[in-house]
Amino acid sequence: MQLQAPSGLMGLPNELKSSITSFLSDSDLAILCHLMFGSYIHLILDSSRNQATIAVLNSLTPKRLVEFRLSGFLDVNCFGELVIKQNCLEHLSFRHCWHYFSPTFAETPTFPSLKTLSLYNVHLTDAVPPEGENSIGLIVQNAPKLACLQYTCPRAQRRQNLLEGVLRYRNKGSIHSQLRLQSLMLHGQDLSLETLLVAIISGVDFSWIRTLYLRRCPFASKFLATVSRENNLLLKTFVFVQHVDDTLPHSTLPAFLRSFSGLEHMCIDLNENQPLPAIEDFENHAGTLVTLIVGHNRNFVSPAYSLPEIAHLCESLRQLQRLAVHCPVLEYPTNLNGDLIPQAGMTEFLKSVATLPSLKTLRITNLLNIGPKVRSFVDVPDFGLCLDQYVNTLESLATQCFRYLVQIQKTSKVD
Questions:
Q1: Are 198 and 254 part of one and the same domain?
Q2: For residue 413, is it within any domain?
Q3: Is 167 a member of any domain?
Q4: Could you report the per-residue pLDDT of 140-171, keeping only the tens digit for each?
Q5: How many domains does the chain have?
Q6: DSSP state letter for 285
Q7: Residue 391 lies in a domain
Q8: What is the C-alpha to C-alpha distance for residues 106 and 256, in angstroms, rounded to an integer?
Q9: How far apart are CA 349 and CA 69, in angstroms?
Q10: b/e for 98-118, b at 16 or more Cβ within 10 A?
């Protein structure tokens, strides 16, 4: 059999593609994939893989599965088997999936037990389906107990509307109220899209959200401002990791953190050109905050906070049990004979940390990565010897830190 063009093969029905690929040897399948564009490779391989998936779903006792993860091609048959026979799932995950058109059912399928839906790099096909054929939206619409929505946007499709379509489909022509999620986790989603912002704000009741996770989501400032302005937030966990190129306005995080109170766990990790919130910006959460992770991504030169600011932090946040922060006195080693770690400054840092009455874990986050790549890229005379001395100093310091803290707090540790 000779295939004249990838477009011709891809125009065939899924069942026929599956049948064709099932007769190919491994070598022929490899040759075929070599002729295809990257996205079509997934469609070829996954169409045959889904035959095995469907066979497994068919063999299982109905309503047996609690958790199901699919990586590959979400076609009509696989989706149909899932929603008809295994609709008692509590956790459902789609990873690197293509195609999400929904089949037609005699009765609307329901997912009465679904608590967590994870969408990781779920790709749009060339033809974006209309809202009425969105199978992911169908799941969300008919999962009354859905508590956690995790969405990782494919890098190449940050400005397309998969998440928006899911949220709009749920509310289109229905009497459903806003989603009462407890956890919303977004990764890589461009939040500058006005229609997406409207869909999220109108589709999710943020007064129910207890965990908000934003990782590498460009242009998040308007989203945070709108969420805090239009909702009575009761967040317990806030994770904000921003390593992308766009720079947040200086007031974004301070204004957001001051708009509510009661956080218990907070992680803020920014580019070095983005200012961290001041210690005063944490004061609304001083009585509840038990975990604080704060710093600049991969920046070993400029500390997140100075020694006086660290002291102020420890005076203000008395409930902390876990603290991960840059140590201001750890500097980039550039001089073999220099004072790599000033003992006086380190003692001052430890004295401040040791005043936290409930501290159990201390993590110093600006320790230099000393692998071969770092050694090869740094243009400093005798840098290898300098790093060796730095490591020896750190080993000695770790022992001293542990002994010092244990004298004051029996439960503390340093890593």
A1: yes
A2: yes
A3: no
A4: 888 999 999 999 988 766 566 678 888 887 76
A5: 2
A6: G
A7: yes
A8: 46
A9: 46
A10: bbbebeeeeeebbbebbbbbb
